[in-house]
Amino acid sequence: MAENPTVKSNRDKFRERMSKKYPDHNFDDEEALYGQIGDDYDGYEKEINGYKEREKAFSDLFTSDPRSASFLTNWRKGGNPAIELVRLFGDDFVEELKDPDKQEELAKASQEYAERVAKEKDFDEQYQKNIEETLSTIKAIQDEKGWSDEQVDEIMEFLVNIMKDGILGKFSRESIEMASKAINHDANVEEAAHEGEVRGRNAKIDEKLRKKSHNDGTANLSGKNGGGGSKRQLPDLGAISRYDGAQSIWERGGEKRTAYK
After folding, report:
1. For residues 39 and 48, is the Cβ–Cβ distance under 8 A?
2. For a Cys staple, 79 with which of 33, 74, 151, 156, CB 3.0–4.6 Å?
3. Residue 31 pLDDT more than 70?
4. Burial of 129 (0-12, 13-18, 19+ CB in 10 A)
5. How far apart are CA 203 and CA 218, in angstroms?
6. Contacts 24+ apart (CB under 8 A), 220-229
7. Which helix (H) or strand (E) element contains residue 12?
8. Could you give the C-alpha distances from 180 to 161, 169, 186, 187, in angstroms and in order?
9. Ranges of Basic and acidic residues compositional bias (predicted)?
10. How far is residue 192's CA from residue 200's CA, in Å, rounded to a whole number?
11. pLDDT of 52-110, one tens digit each?
């Protein structure tokens, strides 16, 4: 009998979705999960409010002068904006361009336009150059690390999300801590290696001192009058070692003394 496939709960599906969006977060912790949901809602509300403000600005513009809506609509459909202005505003628009009192303002506006176009062109050129270098870098790292396309996509999505949050002035605790770890990684590794080296040297010194205190044969000076409370064992000298002065050396040694005449 075929086994029924495991059906994921909506909770698990949502947790997986959040983990893909924020791969550096641990959403097994519900506090972290709901905290991120709250942050996302705050971001969404801010974006929606921005959309509403811009929508209201256009609505007010169209309400104040319906011709502006027609102008933008015709322009979007491919109409020439200058011709559309004349069509909608008539000679008033042409006269404004000819008005001597407006020439200074028109010249300033024309200069601002030229500068903006130049900046946009420069920006586009820089973007194309940078994106080509970025793609080459990604390809090189992918080949070096053996990353799959899915892994690269997840990494780039993570970086793009940080960039989007930065534009909105939003930096999560996890992103800040991750940046700190990245910046201090080499210093932390070097410090850990140094501490390990010091511990290793200290352990060797302690071992040498321990062996020396037990095996060097020097007198123990920690006791009274320089003695350590225990007698040093002397080598066995046979009969001499057994002599205490109460008997002759021959008697102590169990030897028979031969009398010489």
Report:
1. no
2. 74
3. yes
4. exposed
5. 23
6. none
7. helix 10-21
8. 18, 18, 11, 11
9. 9-26, 191-209
10. 12
11. 888 888 788 778 888 888 888 888 888 888 888 888 888 777 787 788 888 888 888 88
**Residue 238 φ/ψ region, left for φ over 0, alpha for ψ in the -120 to 50 degree band, beta for the rest:** left
DSSP single-letter state for residue 229: S
Pick the closest to residue 40 from 25, 55, 52 (CA basis).
Answer: 25
Classify residue 199 by burial, with Cβ atoms within 10 Å: 0-12, 13-18, 19+: exposed
Contact 33, 15 (CB under 8 A): yes
Query: What residue type is 256 in one-letter code?
Result: K
**DSSP class of 8:** P
pLDDT at 223: 47
The residues near 168 (Cβ < 8 Å, ≥ 6 apart) are 43, 46, 47
pLDDT at 235 over 80: no
Q: Provide the 8-state DSSP code for 218.
A: P
Tell me if 219 sits within 8 A of 204, measured CB to CB: no
Specify whether the CB–CB gap between 71 and 65 falls below 8 A. Answer: no
Quote the tokens at residue 45: 């509300």
Q: Which amino acid is at 94?
A: V
Q: What is the DSSP letter of 194?
A: H
Assign 3-class secondary structure to 69-87: HHHHHHHHCCCCHHHHHHH
pLDDT in tens, 140-195: 999 999 989 998 888 888 888 888 777 777 778 888 888 888 787 666 566 666 56
Q: How many Cα atoms sit within 13 Å of 133 on the Cβ side?
A: 6
